[in-house]
Predict the structure.
Amino acid sequence: MSTSSIIIIGAGISGISAAKVLVENGVEDVLILEATDRIGGRIQKQSFGDVPVELGAGWIAGVGGKESNPVWELASRFNLRTCFSDYTNARFNIYDRSGKIFPTGIAADSYKKAVDSAILKLKSLEAQCSSGQVAEETLSSPKTPIELAIDFILHDFEMAEVEPISTYVDFGEREFLVADERGYECLLYKMAEEFLFTSHGNILDNRLKLNQVVREVQQSRNGVVVKTEDGSVYEANYVIVSASIGVLQSDLLSFQPPLPRWKTEAIQKCDVMVYTKIFLKFPQCFWPCGPGQEFFIYAHEQRGYFTFWQHMENAYPGSNILVVTLTNEQSKRVEAQSDQETMKEAMSVLRDMFGSTIPYATDILVPRWWNNRFQRGSYSNYPMISDNQLLQNIKAPVGRVFFTGEHTSEKFSGYVHGGYLAGIDTSKSLLEEMKQSLLLQPLLNFTESLTLTHQKPNSQIYTNVNFISGTS
């Protein structure tokens, strides 16, 4: 059995940032157990069409404000290559099924109506919840293809969050697409190099163990025992669980004794967003690539059906790659079918927009975040009207087990910087807990010795008295 002060389950950005803070504060016998063969979690690159593409997180959101985004600071420090992304122009590049672009006036009017409707709906929900009424769908839902497309952009691609959005208020409204040969994940490797032993970019430190699938966390008054799928057993004083909210909702990880009801109910109430970027490689470029044309939209009778498109020419000129974003039910549907069927559907949509003579894609890449048992989704998505107690219960520790991840970030859930800051916050809370335990330990030892003496009046103390008096 391997013994450490702290075990961290998961080597995503929260797990790595948590471990870094702990080591920097003198807790050097940290052990990181990662289920896969790499670090990064939902930050993952893959080579496609001779360029690296980001399967998961791909943007640094929240740049240019008065306060600096910590992930943007890391990117600047390690010279991560990025491209400015402005998808506000996408609403003026909306194609119908005949390949015509909706006039700018119609698109702008539809977008304004959708925004106004969303604000009214939110206010209605807030009013009903504050008055104790059951929230109902009181406003009309989008019906036409362009209304459905814009509704998808507002609530799925741009993420439905309660205004004001903390990321943009605190850090700024600009967003940058990561376009670096090393991938977004290089930020994690650079962080890891600062506290783990590495050689030529490879982490060789035995405090990081890959391919260790944790299945059980067993805690007692004296410590925590962690058991993995391959039969390995690890022991620590504390554990930090940085698994995603989707994994916590699944049956991959069990806790002994079971987590309290308030904890499990909070975990199950949090929504999980599935966000799928499908990459298509073509022999040549056939789509517009001028200013303001990086993103375009397909209006279909089915909401979210191959709606949001982006070309990669700004990030990688000459790559001839298109990306289409699906979410939630569409993501799950596509994950369940073959890549060939998905390519057929995508090509049908593209030929609606650009004509039947366009070339067929030569390759396709379909990430499967929902069916990945180590992720079970892309990021947390708290209900727009929810009690703050829900998040507090999700992030609260249970005994010696602490929880971290983007889903525990009070202001930035769903973002990379949310996961990064959550790891730091959790490790600081744990350090404070350890400090308090050390301060209390002498008192606890003294109290325990008094208790043991008091519990033996008829044996130890009584016998000694009899011996002294000669009656023994």
Remarks:
- The longest helix spans residues 416-454.
- The chain is about 35% helix and 20% strand.
- Confidence is low (pLDDT under 50) at residues 134-138, 452-472.
